[in-house]
Amino acid sequence: MPEPAPPPLPLLAAASSPAAGPLQRARRRQQHHQRRGWRRPRGLLAWGALVAFFFVMNWWMFSRLQDPAARPHFRLRRHPPRADAAAASNSSSLSTLEEVAGTAKGKGPHRVMLTRLLALAAHALAEAETRPEPNDLWEEPINATMWRPCSDQRDWEASEGTNGYIMISANGGINQQRVAICNAVTISRLLNATLVIPKFLYSNVWLDKSQFGDIYQEDYFINYLKSDIRIVKDLPVELQSLDLEAIGSLVNDTDVMKEAKPSLYVKKILPILLRNRVVHFIGFGNRLSFDPIPSDLQRLRCRCNFHALRFVPKIQETGAILVERLHGHRSHLSPLKDNLLGQVAVKSAPSTNKSDASKYLAVHLRFEIDMVAYSLCYFGGGKDEEDELEAYRQNHFPVLTELKKTTKLPSAAFLRSEGKCPLAPEEAVLMLAAIGFKRSTYIYIAGAEIYGGKHRMAAISRLYPSLVTKETLLSPSELEPFRNFSSQLAALDFIACAAADAFAMTDPGSQFSSLVQGYRMYYGGGNLPTIRPNKRRLASILVKNATIEWQEFETRVRKLIQQTKQVHERPVARSIFRHPRCLECMCRIEH
C-alpha cells in the first residue's frame, strides 16, 4: 500500500494548535503512526543487512581455510613423508565450525564455548604459519641443565638376602607394574630379602597376559642390581609347595596401607618373612612412601626405574623404527636413547648431529573409555553416552557402581569446574594451539583407542593434519607381534613419547605421563620439555569465561603452562618416578 502524502504545512500547524478539533487531532495521530510504522521496517531491514554482511564475511573467511576436496574424516597416513609436512598444512582441510567442534550431541554452554574457541583457533593457526614459534616452545628453562643423572652411583655392599624370599604379583598396566617392581626391589633391600622375578596379574581392563620377561630383560635386571640385592627367577623348590595363604604369608593391599613408611615393613612384614621364609605381595601398587625414606633406599628406587629396567630386544627394535620414522630417518645418540634402545640405538643412528633430525611433538591423549567412565564426567554425548559409560562401570568398576548407590558423589559439572575431568581431544588441541605449536607440527598421538573414535578426533586432526600413531607408522607385519598385548604396545608409546622433542600430557594424574615426564627429566639434560597443564586452572578458563577472546585465552594458557615448566627440586612426598630432580636421584651441577 503506498505511503500517504504528507499533509500541507498549514494543516499540520492547525492540527497542532490548541484550537484544533477532535477530528483533526485524530487524523494527525493516525498519520503519525503510519509514518512510524514505515520507519520501523526500514530500521529492521538495515539491521538485518548488517547481520547478513557479517555472516557472509565469516563464511568467506572459513571458506578460504578449506579445501573443498577434503571432507570431515579422521585419516592418518602411513609413513608420511616429512617433506610433505608443510604441504599437508596447506592442503588438508581446516573444517568449518560445525565439522571441527561438532564432536558431541550436547548443546550446553561448555560445548558452545568450545565451538567458538575452535573456530578462533583455526583462524589463529592459519595466521601463525608465517610467524616464528615462541622461543621456549621446544626448550626447557636454562636452569634445567644443572641436573644430571647419578642414581647409578653406589656406596654400600650387596645385600645377601638371607632373611627369606619376597614375591610380588603386580596389578594394573605397565606403568603400575613398573612402580611395583621398583618398590619391591627397595623393600627387598630394606628387609635383607631375596627378590623373586615379579609376576604380573591378568587384568580385565588391560587384557594382557604378558609377564616380566615379555617386556623387560630378566638377565640384565638381575645383573644390574646384583650389587644391591639378590634376585632369582624362581622360588626354591622346597618352598614352592607351601600354602602361603594358610601360613599367613599372603599379603594384599588391604594389609599394607597406601604409601606405607619403611618402618611398617620392618614391624609387620619382617616377622612373617623370618617365620615363614617367604612373603607374597598381591597387587602392591603404591605401597611404599616417598618420604620419609633413607636416601640410599630412595636412590636404589631411582636406580631400578631409570637404569635396571630395559625393554626386551623385540620392543627395542620396533621402538627404534618408530623413533627413526618420527625423526625423518635421521637419529642422534643420547643417554636417553641408549637406555631405551640399548645396542639397537647404536646400530640405527646414522647421524650424530642433532640439527639433522626433524622435530616432533608427542601427545598422550588419556581419553580411553576406562578413564572417561571412571572420571564420572560428562562429555556431551547425551543419554547414549551416559548409558554406555554406566554399563562399562558396572562391568569393570563394580565398586564404583556400588558407591554411587550409597553415596552422593560430586556432579559432573562440579568435577569439570574443579579440573577433575580428563581433557577431551578438542580441549587438548585448544591448549596446543594457544601455546604456539604451528599447524604444520608433526604430532605423535600415544594411547589406546580414543573414546568416541574418529568423530571425537575430528577437531585435532583438522587443526593439526600431520598426525600419526604407532598404527600408522608401523606396517601390519611390524605390529603383529604386539597385537593383544596392551602393555607391550604401551612400551612402544613410552619409547616414542620419551624420545620426543617435546611431550604434552593431557592428564597430569596419568601414571604413563608421569613416568614419561620423569624419564625425560632424568635423561634430558634440560633439552626435553614436558607440557603439563594445570587442569583446574585450565578448567576455570574454559568453563567460567564464556565470551573470552582468543588473544586473552592464548595469554592465560601460556602463563599457566610456563608456571608448570619451572625447574625446582622435588617437593616432599612427591613421586621420584614423576619428579627425580632430587639429590638422591640426580646431581646438581653449579655453573
Task: Describe the 3D structure.
The structure is a single chain. The chain is an alpha/beta fold and 591 residues long. 49% of the residues lie in helices and 7% in strands. The protein has 27 helices and 13 strands. It has helices spanning 9-16, 22-64, 85-91, 97-101, 109-128, 174-190, 212-215, 218-224, 237-240, 262-276, 295-308, 313-326, 335-341, 343-347, 369-375, 382-396, 398-406, 412-417, 425-435, 453-456, 458-463, 470-473, 476-479, 486-498, 511-523, 535-544, 550-564, and strands at residues 147-149, 165-170, 194-196, 199-200, 231-232, 250-251, 278-283, 361-364, 443-446, 467-468, 502-505, 530-531, 586-588. The strands form three sheets. Strands 2, 3, 4, 5, 6 and 7 form a six-stranded parallel β-sheet that branches. The chain has a five-stranded parallel β-sheet with strand order 10-9-8-11-12. It has a two-stranded antiparallel ribbon with strand order 1-13. α10 links the parallel β6 (250-251) and β7. α1 (9-16) crosses α2 (22-64). The radius of gyration is 31 Å and the shape is globular. The N and C termini lie far apart (89 Å).
Approximately what portion of the residues adopt beta-strand conformation?
A: 5-15%
Whole-number average pLDDT? 84
Number of helices: 27
Q: From the alpha carbons, calculate the radius of gyration and give it in angstroms.
A: 31 Å
Give a short account of the largest sheet: 6 strands, parallel
Could you tell me how far the N terminus lies from the C terminus, measured between alpha carbons in angstroms? 89 Å
Q: Count of DSSP E strands? A: 13
What structural category arises from helix and sheet content?
Answer: alpha/beta
Low-confidence stretches: 1-20, 35-41, 50-81, 83-106, 351-356
Helix content: 40-55%
